[in-house]
Amino acid sequence: MRRERDQNDDFPPAMQQRQSLNDRAFTGSDIRADILGKYGFEGDLLDIYVTGSDQLVHKWHHYLPLYDRYFAAWRNRPLRFLEIGVFKGGSLSMWRKYFGPDAVLFGIDIDPACAAYDGIAGQVRIGSQDDPDFLRAVVGEMGGVDVVLDDGSHVMEHIRKSFEVLFPLVTSGGTYMVEDLHSAYWRRYGGGYRRAENFFNFVREMTDDLHEWYHDHGLRHEALSKHCTGIHVHDSICVFDRGERIAPTHSRVGG
Asked: How many angstroms separate the Cα of 48 from the Cα of each of 54, 103, 131?
């Protein structure tokens, strides 16, 4: 069966990632100046990131202002924050400094080596992000969850499974962020340009559900969309607002 050819089909899977990432690595000497100059961002999170910690953290520069935009309201509050993907532990250390001592921070990872970071800046639990029972158990141990950041496997099937389990568990007014969604365009992660499995196709369906009042095609993902009040798409990041949707009403005031 003939299919549309992907731009990266000439490259083997490993090369697809290198072609997209290596050329974009920062090679300068001043990370702070790069972020400030490009994005006009100079908040506390920038100071925390560039100062670093004993644990390695690796972030795209444009993520920092987006984190601050969506997470700043939770600072110095008894937040319950779950990060999917622990890597070298540096991200949890960054979030501890950013959110403060009252935050309940949990990270999950499938790599048993990540257990070494348990108790340093937050709690670490070992398990798969596509295991519903594991995810529910972690949220239960946390006492609920207000914010989820998916920085895990970046595999389309895993991202979708985690979202289906966790998004309904996020408290009303909470936030669910998925990052590194450039993987949605790579075959090695189950994605591909215009392929059905690309996570942004699911985002489109959720967007259609968000606008159910204006079309006659019903809800594609009712169990999820009834909790979604907003969707924000940025370069490689998608953010979902958790709340209870209310049918829109309009009025006219004045003459």
From this structure: 12, 16, 32
